[in-house]
Every structure is written in C-alpha cells, then in structure tokens.
Amino acid sequence: MRLLLHNIQYGTGRLRRFAWLETLLRTTSHFPNISRFVRHMDPDIIGLVEVDSGSYRARHKNQAEELARELDYHHCYRVKYPDEGLGRRVPVLNKQANAVLSRESILRTAFHDFESGFKSLAIEVELEGVTLFLVHLALGIRARQRQLGDLHDLIAGCQKPCLVAGDFNTLAGTWELNMFLRATGLISANTQHQPTFPSWAPCRELDFICHDRAITPLRFKVPKVPLSDHLPLMLDFELEHETAKPLSLTDDGH
C-alpha cells in the first residue's frame, strides 16, 4: 500500500517567505496542480493537512470532497478546531480542516480533540488492515508535548497495525518526538531525517509518517515538489501478513 501525506497550505501555493497573509487569497487556480500530483502518485491512502472545506478562498467548495470525487475515493474530514473553540467562530478559520482519503472503504472514523492547543484535532480512520491517525500539532512546545501524551493514549487502544502521520510542528527539533516514539514503539519512516519545510529551501523536519512494527516499510520518499510551503511524504508499506510485490523501476515518485 502507499500512503501520501501532504500539508497543502489550503491549496494556496504561496511559497514566498513571510507571505502568510497571501494564504487568504483564492486557491482555485493552484489546487488543480495538487490534484494532478496526487493522481500521479497513485496513493492508496491520503492524509491532507490544511484543507479548505469551503471558504471564499476555494469558492465555497470543499477541497477534500472535490479531490475524493475526482479520484473516486472514500473520505472523511473535519475542521481542526473544537466545536466550542474560537476557530469555529472566525470566518475562514471555521473552514480550515484536515482530511483522509482512501481507495478502500473506511470502516470507522473518530475525531479526537486534544485538551491542549489551538489546533487540536486527531482524525482516526480504520481501514480493513490498518488504522491511521492524522494530526496537526500545536505551535507551542508545551501544548505539543501534552498533545503527544494524548496521542500516545489513543494509539495504546489501537487493535490493528497503526500509522501516525501529520504535521508535528517540531520547531525545536526532532528530539521532541523521542519520548513519544519510545513510549509507543512507533518508528519514523524518515530514517534519513530528510527536511520537509520550507519547500523552497528545506531545513526542518516538521512532517512525519510513523508506523508500528506490524508494518514493513518498503520505500520512503520526500518528493521535491513545491506545491505548498511543506513538501509531501510518501511511504510504500506492507502489513506483516502480506506478500511483498515488486516496485516498478520507472516509479520514481516525481
């Protein structure tokens, strides 16, 4: 199976440093570029961070629904802020979401709100052979550490092979995840610590795909495609009961 993770910056494609205000501009001219890239990668599971679920930027269209319809995938999404949080009451923010798309049927979804952090959502998606948690952690290090503790507790109750993916915002360095990885037994697929941010000059490893030992990684790649301020991550993997299939020599992930 192939998992593709990407923080798509709401489809804005604004790559200039310190140009965050430009993320308020319309996204309809750039989002098709992201769609073409995703189609080219042909993933079985897609984790999308920073999805516009219908603000004026996307002409009130839900990017997750649009992409799922184009690919004929199953999907789920939710705004990343708690129901009673400030983010639900502010225009544009109340359409900022995360989403999971899957080629195979989604058996169960759950939306967990961490107790700490302004953005505090973990999406849990159960497929036939694996459970995926998609996260976008807080900007403050103390809130992130508390969120990692909550995420540990969620993973502890998982009955299937487990994947955890998302933008972890490890702004202080990847050491932030050391205790979390030891406690959960998860392994980062990015064994070479390839940086993922900013896409135009990557120097920080903020985005992660982690897996438990029931999952065998076959191939990991950080495609160098500047479609967002974050680079995407791709993991080909098999479950322990599956038989490995040879990868195409022409499939270079670009």
What does this structure look like?
This protein is 17% helix and 28% strand. With 254 residues, the protein is of the alpha+beta class. The chain has one domain: Endonuclease/exonuclease/phosphatase (Deoxyribonuclease I, Chain A, 4-Layer Sandwich). Mean pLDDT is 90; it is low at 242-254.
* Number of helical stretches of at least 4 residues: 4
The CATH topology: Deoxyribonuclease I, Chain A
Helical percent range? 10-25%
Listing every helix as H and every strand as E from the N terminus to the C terminus, the arrangement reads EHEHEEEEEHEHEEEE
Average predicted confidence as pLDDT: 90
CATH superfamily: Endonuclease/exonuclease/phosphatase
Q: Sheet with the most strands?
A: 6 strands, mixed
- Residues in β-strands, percent: 25-35%
Shape: globular
Poorly predicted sequence stretches spanning 5 or more consecutive residues:
242-254
What Rg is obtained from the alpha carbons, in whole angstroms?
A: 17 Å
Total separate domains: 1
Quickly name the level 1 CATH class.
Alpha Beta
In the CATH classification, which architecture applies? Answer: 4-Layer Sandwich
Structural class determined from secondary elements:
alpha+beta
Report the strand count: 12
What is the first-to-last residue Cα distance? 18 Å
